Every structure is written in structure tokens, then in C-alpha cells.
Amino acid sequence: MTEEFEVTPYKVSGEVDYDELVDRFGTKKIDDDLIDRLARHGPLHIMLRRGIFYSHRDLDWVLDQYDKGVGFTLYTGRGPSGPVHIGHTMPWLFTKYLQDTFKASLWFQLTDDEKFMFYDHLSLEETKRWGYENALDIIALGFDPDLTNIFLDTEYIKTMYPTAVKAAKRINFSTIRAVFGFDNSNNIGSIFFTSIQTVPCFLESMQRESNVPCLIPCGIDQDPHFRVTRDIAEGLGFLKPALVHAKLMPSLAGSEKMSTSTKGEDTVFMTDDEATTKRKIMNAFTGGRVSVEEQRREGGNPEICAVYQYCLYYFEPDDAKLAELHASCQSGSILCGECKSRLFDKVWKFLENHQVAREKAKDRIEEFFVRD
Ligand code: TRP
To answer: How far apart are CA 70 and CA 66, in angstroms?
Structure first.
């Protein structure tokens, strides 16, 4: 019996069973054939090897199109409601791998409108300001400026609006209510919003005036939006977008989607300083036992450990070393303190580099933004 859990773009709760989610959403697992196909294009990304990006819609078709020389474009996004944390960057790092491997253009949507509509505590000016702040983190990850188009919804609306209204006309309220779990108390902007998240699937095609396949790397919580998109795409004269889905990175407090709405102690922000990062990691939830003696005797549980999950997702890229860590945790030969401090070293190195690149990004905004 699996526990109750819920995943929508606006709510993630309970212990998520990712295999069951594939059945519920009607997506496909990334199987060995697909992994082999991807491996032929270059070194397999860690998040594919580790099953972090684990589900898809029509990824095989996108690769067929690529092999035929048609190519494809990438689309992902960010809801700018606060500072970017490490969990947010995971799908973006994967998107960069896809851009580099397939030399694909990328459309990066900043949904200042969405976050304003969904959060009572944020003004539109604030979500816009977070949009520009978050863009620095995105640029700092190293996307190719010649292939990358970043835009803020409230600014790029002139380009998007005609297609958004055509999309909106094809979407019923009953569909939105069922897909997102809305009720009569939701404001009407939130009901309309999915049509704005739909449009970037078609921006490359609109710009080139000819249909280009689109692949969306995203957390699986975003899939409901694109189920709606896929149902209406052909009616609008476009191709259905393809998707590749990631599991949601657990917070330092254990499982569940890393959230920016908590006080921030269980997430590492990209702008955290060294002492803050250390404090957060040293306080992380682990699979350790109550006493050193018990842990030496019984061993720890890496499966429920936030520190181990961080290593798995990204911070221990060497598969052999990860297996060793797993084994020495279970056997009780390594204790949580040591494990945390090793993780801290890796996370801090990542953040230190990021923060330098982020400073430089301040002069590079216009290289990446598209405007209408
Ligand atoms: N709605 C997403 C969020 O809250 C942001 C987003 C917009 C997005 N377009 C996207 C995410 C495309 C993934 C793919 O965070």
C-alpha cells in the first residue's frame, strides 16, 4: 500500500511514489533503449545515470527528429518567487547538458505573472525583481548566449499574447479545475495562467514561421500544464511538445519538494555564504542513529538521508564512490558528521564558483534577454 501523496504544479504533499506517478500521469519511464540512444550522443549525464531524470513524453520522437536533421528547441522556466536554491538548479543543469549536446536553442520563461497570481505576499513589482535576480543564477550556470532566450512574462507579453488567447479559447474551466485541483475560490488569473505557460512551447516555431519540435526538461510537478498543452497544440497548428521529467530534489529536512516558503534553513540558496551553507548542511536530516554506539553497531539508512540524496543527485558524480558511501553508511563505518562535512566541501565549491559567475552575469543580462 502506498501512502497518500499529491503532485500538481501548485501542491506537492506526502511521500511521492515516482513509479506510481508515471502511471497516474500516463508518462513513460526512460528505459534502457532510450538511455543507450542518449549515450550515443555524448557522455551520459549523471541525472540520467542515476534515474533523477526518469520519465518522459515523446523523447524518442525528439531524438528521431534530431537524427533526421530536423533538430529541436528546448524550453524550461522558473517561477520567480524568491531566491534560487540548489534544488531549482538541477533541471537547469540538465537543460544545459541538452543544449551543449544537441546544440539546441533554449527558451527560458520567468513567470512573474504566475507567482504574483498565486502568492498573496508578493507584489508584481517583487516577482519581477526576483525574475531579474533569478536570471543571474540562470546565466551563471553557463548557458550559451547565442542559443538562449530568457524573458519575463509581463515584458514579453506582446509576442506571446495572441497565441495565449488562441490557446485559452480551447481550454475549458472544467479541465483546469480537474488538472490543477482548483475550485471556485481561485482567482481568474490563475485559471488563465496555463495558457501563458503553453506559449513558449511554440516560440521557436513562431519565430521561424515553421514547426520545430520542442523538448521541455522540468520537474515532474509541471507535467499537468503540458498535458493541457499537448491536447491543444495540434489544433493551434503546432507540434505537441515533448517532455523529460525529473524527480524533485528533497530538502535538507528530508523528502518532499525543496521549498522556498519555509524559513530557509532546510534549503541551500545559491547566494548563501560559507558559514550559512555549513550551518544548514551540518543540521541536515540524516539516516543516522540516536547514538554513535548504535550507529557503529546498526549502521545508518542512506535511503532516507538528505545528505546521501544530495550526493546521489549531483554532488558525488563518481558512481563507485557513491556505492562506497552507501555501503559504509549501512555498515556503520562512517558517521553523519564526517559525511556532512564532506558534502559541505563539495557544495561550497559549487556555490563559490557559482557566485563568481553570478557577479559577472550582472553585465550580461542583455546578451540573454529577448524583448518585443
Ligand atoms: N510554473 C513554473 C514554476 O512555478 C515555471 C515554469 C514556466 C516552467 N515554464 C516552465 C517550469 C517550463 C518548467 C518548464 O516554477
So the answer is: 5
Q: Is 77 in the pocket of ligand 1 (CB under 6 A)?
A: yes
Residue minimizing CA distance to atom 8 of ligand 1: 77
* Protein residue closest via CA to atom 5 of ligand 1: 78
**Residue 208 cell numbers, joined:** 521561424
pLDDT tens-digit series, residues 237-265: 999 999 999 999 989 998 655 555 557 89
Distance of CA 175 to the CA centre of its chain: 24
- For the chain, give the number of residues: 372
Nearest to 216 by CA among 206, 207, 203: 203
**Closest residue by Cα to residue 193 from 67, 79, 286, 64:** 79
Assess contact for 183 and 142: CB atoms under 8 A. no
Query: What pLDDT, in 10s, does the model give residues 285-333?
Result: 999 998 999 999 999 999 999 999 999 999 999 999 999 999 999 999 9
Q: What angle do CA 48, 53, 57 make, to 5 degrees?
A: 115
Task: Tell me how far apart the alpha carbons of residues 15 and 4 are, in angstroms, rounded to a whole number.
Answer: 7
Q: Is 197 in the pocket of ligand 1 (CB under 6 A)?
A: yes
Centre a 10 Å sphere on the Cβ of residue 178 and count the other Cβ atoms it contains: 11
CA 203/CA 226 separation, integer angstroms: 15
Domains, the chain: 6-248 (3.40.50.620), 274-359 (1.10.240.10)
Q: Count H helices, E strands: the chain?
A: 19, 11
